[in-house]
Specification:
Strand 9, helix 4 and strand 10 (about 145) form a beta-alpha-beta unit. The chain has helices at about 35-45, 60-65, 80-85, 125-135, 150-160, 170-180, 200-215, 220-230; strands spanning about 10-15, 20, 25, 30, 50-55, 70, 85-90, 95-100, 120, 145, 165-170, 180-195, 195-200. It is globular, with a radius of gyration of 18 Å. It has 2 domains: about 10-90 and about 195-230, Periplasmic binding protein-like II (D-Maltodextrin-Binding Protein, domain 2, 3-Layer(aba) Sandwich); about 95-190, D-Maltodextrin-Binding Protein, domain 2 (3-Layer(aba) Sandwich), CATH 3.40.190.10. It contains 8 helices and 13 strands. It is α/β, with parallel strands linked by helices and about 230 residues long. Bound molecules: glutamine. Glutamine binds near residues 57, 76, 121 and 125. The site of glutamine (GLN) has 12 residues, from loops.
């Protein structure tokens, strides 16, 4: 927006982890994707500016807490634990977890049982799900390998260095289009993604929710889903 008074629009730093296609990924050196378009559209509608930074997923919540980030748009699931330290917008996308294996493997869900090595991205709901449901009860007795980026999870899966990966199904499906990996099981976790802000930042959260509401009602959300999923 332009103001005759010359007042500059507020600029917010948006944190993401660009290894989560089609929500955020790097293309020709640029951070792009569904969440990036979404947050830019909200910014345009509400009259603020954004600058997007690509950092590790497990640094996003600390970034909001320390104030180095204003907003997180990272396909981040709204969870009760996270709600204790950050605030989430209304939900904008629903997803489950899934199991990804090498395309030449005949493994199924049981690849998560016994002596297999499983890759996850650190700090994600996939990471937590494997710990809480498989490691704790020693259902999985192999290694849980933690990575900073799904790019390296997929690389190790394609190379045969790990047996399986657990990650959000829409992202696993997107990776399977261009890599020798297949989704072989869905884990129904019923997750909802939200845009996050620092705890108590009610003003910014209200702006984001207002913009999100407009995006849902003016056809933009539908267009984004078509652009990135069809
Ligand atoms: N939705 C998952 C979570 O919130 C994964 C998000 C991601 O890795 N970008 O933990």
């Amino acid at each position: 927006a332009t103001f005759s008074t010359g007042v500059m629009a507020q600029r917010y730093v948006v944190g993401t982890n660009a290894s989560f296609p089609p929500f955020e990924y790097v293309e020709d050196g640029e951070i792009v994707g569904f969440d990036i378009d979404l947050v830019k559209e909200i910014a345009k509608l509400q009259g603020f500016e954004v600058e997007v930074r690509d950092i590790s997923f497990d640094s996003l919540i600390p970034g909001l807490a320390s104030g180095s980030l204003d907003i997180v748009a990272a396909g981040m699931t709204i969870t009760a634990d996270r709600e204790k330290v950050i605030d989430f917008s209304d939900p904008y996308y629903s997803a489950n977890q899934s199991v990804l294996v090498h395309e030449e493997s005949d493994a199924n869900l049981t690849v998560l049982f016994g002596n297999h090595d499983v890759g996850v991205q650190t700090g994600t709901t996939g990471d937590t799900w494997v710990r809480d449901n498989l490691l704790e009860d020693e259902i999985l007795t192999g290694e849980l390998r933690n990575y900073d980026s799904y790019v390296f999870v997929i690389r190790d899966l394609a190379n045969g260095n790990i047996d399986a990966a657990v990650l959000d199904k829409p992202v696993a499906e997107t990776y399977s289009q261009n890599n020798p990996v297949n989704v072989v099981a869905e884990i129904i976790t019923g997750e909802e993604y939200g845009i996050a802000v620092g705890e108590g930042n009610e003003e910014l959260l209200a702006e984001i929710n207002a913009g999100l509401e407009k995006v849902k009602n003016n056809g933009t959300m539908e267009k984004l889903i078509q652009k990135y999923f069809e």
